[in-house]
Amino acid sequence: MVFEDCLIGFKELRPLVHLLLPLFFHWIAEEMTVSVLVDVLTSALCPDQTTCSEVIYINGLQQTVVGIFKMVVLPLLGQLADEYGRKLLLLITISTSMFPFAVLACNQSRDAVYVYYVLRTISFILSQGSIFCIAVAYAADLIKEENRAAAFSWITGFFSASHVIGNLLARFLPEKYIFVVSIALLIFGSVYMYFFLAETVEPVEKRERDSTFLTNIINFTRKRYESMRYAAVLVFRSPTLKVISLVSFFYELGMSGISSVLLYYLKAVFGFNKNQYSEILSVVGVGAIFSQVWSGDNLSAVSFTNLKELLCLNNENCGLLSLEGGNMLIKRLYMVHLFFALITS
């Protein structure tokens, strides 16, 4: 029965092939740099040392800046995707990742690392979280409502599979080739999406040509504000959405602090390098593939009370897995499934 449900969910992915393939390569390219970045950044900012407080401070500052701007940018990108199309916004967001890695592929000096941090911060603001949200919206445009949970579970299953492959590539590729291969995969994903991905949303009509530039800017800003205000009011008026928002806030508050320093802690205390990081993350990714595919395919049969229990169990497991080097984003996507089921139950 479980196998049949999983097979049904897999069949629902046929309309999403041209979405999942470029995203699959994009996620591989992103993940294969995670383990090597610890060594590269530490070596550049703190030569001949196994620990580097400067890197940890900069990562914390980066997370703070990204979090502040994402509060505005993420809902804005979602609204623009509704009006101007999913494909355009996906192309913009996935294309931002190649520039930071291009800097490190050319130069890994201290100055180059600072440039990388600036570009990576901008990339995170535009792409972190927004790619998955827009991809889910694209899938919702094509998949029937009763099959969406299963389809979403397969999307996150592919996400976890890409992390496994990315970590395996990082494990066996020499360090000097990792950024080059990553950039090649990122370019391939963007080009493939440009030529083969079909748009599912009709763009809004262009503004009248006799409107002045200033008028267009004012109208655009007012429309964005009203739309974001409506979304905020909707969340606060819904008891379910309000609780979900609070749970997400405190969950991210704890997990972001752990995930930002965990790999550097392992390097400082145990002397880990990219090979050990890749092996640990690969093991976690393999387990995530099966757990996400199974959970998403069976969420429709789980009661509201059991869903709340799953959320609590997921939070505890995330805290334990983080001590073993687990990828925080995989756990966050698992929570998306549970939240989606809570909203629709």
UniProtKB/TrEMBL annotation:
Question: Would the keyword Oxidoreductase turn up in this protein's UniProt record?
Answer: no
Q: Which residues cross the membrane?
A: 88-105, 117-139, 151-170, 177-197, 243-266
Q: Which Pfam families match?
A: MFS_1
CC per GO annotation: membrane
Q: How does it sit in the membrane?
A: Multi-pass membrane protein
- The residue range of the signal peptide is none
Molecular function terms, GO-annotated: transmembrane transporter activity
Tell me the compartments it is located in.
Membrane
Give the keywords, sorted. Answer: Membrane, Transmembrane, Transmembrane helix, Transport
Coiled-coil residues: none
State where it is primarily located.
Answer: membrane
Per its record, how is this protein called by name?
MAJOR FACILITATOR SUPERFAMILY DOMAIN-CONTAINING PROTEIN 10
